[in-house]
Specification:
This protein has 11 helices and no strands. The protein has 286 residues and is an all-alpha fold.
Length: 286
């Protein structure tokens, strides 16, 4: 869990392929030849690394311009989802790359709740974390193989790496902190994995009872931290998401308000949701 949370702020490796001319869009070119699976650690981590290696071994080459070609691997198997994840210029479907328009606090909270699903193929909170980790695994594997003198086929795009990192840092991390507060204020709003498919979570709503509980929790928080009488959190209909986010940041590290994303992801139901999302992302990409 800590490893997954660490991906939100970790830096991506930058690669240089010998004396080759480096374009603005590419950092690595050659022919993908990764070692056989079964020599990378033990337990779940070793199994995941072995799957990464096996998937990479099925990847196809690139053309003279450094773009992924549509040819098959030497074994005759077309390049798969994992190869596309690591070397394609496009963002994975699971990354929260879209923009949430600024609306009232309750509207924004329900939008965040609707992103708490575990299904692959749609942009969501936990899919973003899980698919980013797979991407990093693939990039780091390619870098290690190049350092060992092996050839690596494909294009590792710095702009894509940076954008994925920023999505986790500037969106997912901030949303998780608000969702953690929401789940403590009104337990049960965020569903367990068995009820958190994409289709299920698009039906999520904040009913009248939930809104009343949230309004009460916000006013209690305003009283506890002596916020001004006119502060928007005292009247949630006028509040925005950034008002709650700013107050949560001010409370960071105090009892009930974890400062580390790893602490949030280690608590229920976030822990279980991430574990299921990781399983689903591996099933899709590996």
């Amino acid at each position: 869990m800590t490893a997954a949370a660490a991906t939100i702020t970790a830096a991506y490796p930058r690669v240089r392929a010998g004396a080759e001319t480096i374009s603005k869009r590419a950092r690595v070119r050659a022919g993908l030849v990764l070692p056989a699976a079964g020599c990378s650690g033990s337990g779940a981590a070793g199994a995941r690394a072995a799957s990464v290696e096996a998937a990479a071994n099925t990847a196809a080459g690139v053309d003279a311009g450094g773009r992924a070609s549509s040819t098959a691997s030497p074994s005759g198997v077309p390049m798969g989802n994992f190869y596309d994840l690591v070397f394609s210029m496009t963002m994975p479907a699971e990354m929260l790359s879209g923009k949430m328009e600024s609306e009232s606090l309750f509207v924004m909270l329900i939008k965040m709740v609707k992103c708490c699903f575990v299904t692959a193929g749609h942009a969501g909170m936990f899919g973003s974390i899980a698919v980013n980790q797979l991407y990093r695994d693939g990039v780091e594997r390619a870098v290690r193989e190049m350092k060992r003198g092996k050839t690596v086929s494909g294009t590792i795009n710095d702009a894509k790496s940076e954008r994925m990192r920023n999505i986790l840092k500037n969106k997912v991390k901030l949303y998780l902190r608000q969702l953690y507060w929401l789940n403590r204020a009104v337990p049960g709003v965020i569903k367990p994995p068995s009820l958190a498919s994409f289709e299920d979570m698009q039906k999520a709503a904040l009913g009248t009872t939930v809104r009343l509980k949230l309004a009460e929790a916000l006013r209690s928080m305003a009283d506890e931290y002596a916020l001004p009488a006119h502060h928007p959190l005292r009247e949630p209909i006028t509040a925005k998401s950034f008002h709650l986010c700013k107050q949560i940041n001010a409370m960071s590290g105090r009892p009930g308000t974890p400062s580390a994303t790893s602490d949030i992801l280690a608590s229920s139901p976030f822990r279980e949701l991430l574990a299921k999302a990781e399983e689903n992302m591996r099933a899709k990409y590996l």
